[in-house]
Design goal:
With 328 residues, the chain is of the alpha/beta class. It has 13 helices and seven strands. The chain has one domain: Glycoside hydrolase/deacetylase (TIM Barrel). The strands form two sheets. It has a five-stranded parallel sheet. Strands 4-5 form a two-stranded parallel ribbon.
């Protein structure tokens, strides 16, 4: 175990964030991924998505479904998830609605609160990319000078399975970013489980892996969400440097301006930290490459930041978790 890394994520207040709660809301206001139209209903009325990854027979047998769901995946009970143990005093809330939210619930999006097991920083530089895979991701795979961490949406994994498999083949760390990028704090416990579990199933069906690490969309996490994340065997990952690459995508900033700000942050931070970026458009991918070239190749994945050699979960510990079988 890297004890300095352990100290950094248990006591992350030593790393100063370059963003505020208001900045997290701007991420919500500037969504530039392309989610499907929301589909409601239970198993009987569930709408399906046109996916490139076939729906596996083992998952069909387990869920009773015949295809991958759209934005709102259905809740499937799991024998290792006991929702009765989830804190019941923390209400659902919309992003940025923080009036009356007590600091004891440890909300990152309301108070930038970090739990004891949240990973918030790194003992070296660590670029991370959210929201893929996308058709722009292969350029990163071709040109990045070091291994990185991709926080993927399950719905994009089954849309672009070959890109996801190539990420895995190249040895990058693949982690969960929910199925369809909702504000988890606004969802029911069952809906949170579904967002996380369907992403795990997509990653398992496509590359035979179950993620150990998870990043909440918009940084929207509190102790209720964390309790469910932990039940599913994952550790939450936040960040202490936001590149605001979406501003380049929106034409508000240029890539050289982002790079200059990141370099200044690196000088002030002492050369370590966890950087938030995105691989959803060619503009943000180009920003990521410019940042990578400016920071150099001596970077770590999130797992390496905390001295973890087992990058993924062992399926054998997950009760009635379906095993990956031959794809249909």
């Amino acid at each position: 175990m890297n004890w300095r890394a352990l100290f950094l994520f248990v006591l992350p207040a030593v790393a100063q964030a370059n963003f505020t709660v208001e900045d997290l809301l701007q991420h919500k206001d500037n969504e530039w991924w392309a989610p499907c139209s929301a589909q409601g209903g239970g198993l009987e009325s569930q709408q399906y998505i046109m996916a490139a990854e076939p729906f596996p027979t083992w998952l069909a047998a387990f869920t009773g479904l015949s295809a991958w769901p759209q934005d709102n995946p259905p809740y499937i009970p799991l024998d290792y998830v006991d929702l009765a143990t989830v804190p019941n005093h923390i209400p659902k809330r919309e992003l940025g609605i923080c009036d009356g939210v007590e600091r004891t619930v440890c909300s990152f999006d309301c108070h930038l609160c970090i739990a004891f097991d949240d990973i918030r920083t790194c003992n070296q530089i660590s670029q991370t990319f959210d929201d893929g895979p996308s058709p722009s991701t292969p350029k990163l795979l071709e040109l990045l000078p070091s291994k990185t961490t991709f926080f993927v949406q399950g719905i994009n994994v089954i849309r672009f399975p070959e890109i996801f498999r190539e990420q895995h083949r190249q040895g990058h760390l693949l982690a969960s970013h929910t199925w369809s990028h909702p504000n988890l704090a606004a969802l029911s416990n069952e809906e949170i489980v579904a967002q996380l579990q369907w992403t795990n199933w997509a990653m398992n069906a496509t590359a035979g892996i179950i993620p150990r690490y998870f990043r909440p969309p918009y940084g929207s996490i509190d102790n209720r969400v964390r309790a469910i994340v932990r039940m599913l065997g994952m550790q939450s990952v936040l960040w202490d440097r936001d590149t605001f690459d979406w501003k380049v995508n929106a034409g508000i900033k240029t890539s050289p301006e982002v790079v200059e700000e990141v370099q200044e942050w690196k000088r002030q931070s002492g050369g370590w930290g966890l950087i938030l970026e995105h691989d959803t458009t060619i503009k943000t991918v180009n920003v990521g490459l410019d940042v990578a070239n400016a920071l150099g190749p001596n970077q770590l994945t999130v797992a390496e930041c905390v001295g973890q050699t087992q990058w993924y979960q062992d399926p054998a510990r997950l009760g009635n978790q379906p095993r990956r079988g031959r794809r249909s």
